[in-house]
Amino acid sequence: MNTGKNSTLEAIKRKKCIMCEGSLSSLYTLPKFPIYMGTIEQETEKDIYADMSFMHCGDCGCVQLGDLVPLEILYANAHNSVVGKTWEEHHRQFCEFVRAYAKGFMVEIGGGNLVVAKRLATEESVEKITVYDNNVLKYGTCDSPKIELREAFFNPHDIEDPIDVIIHTHLIEHLYNPLEEIREMSHLLEDGSYMMFGSPLIDKMLADKFTNAFNFEHSYLLSRPMIENIMKYSQLEIIDEKRFSPYALFIVARKNTSINREVAHDYTEDVNVFTKFVSYHEEEVKRIKSLLDTEKERTFIFGAHIFTQYLLGFGLEERSFSNILDNDPNKIGNRLYGTNLTVRSPKILQDIESPLVVLKAAQYTEEIKTDILTNINPNTRFIL
Question: What count of other Cβ atoms lies within 10 Å of the Cβ of residue 354?
Answer without folding.
Answer: 12
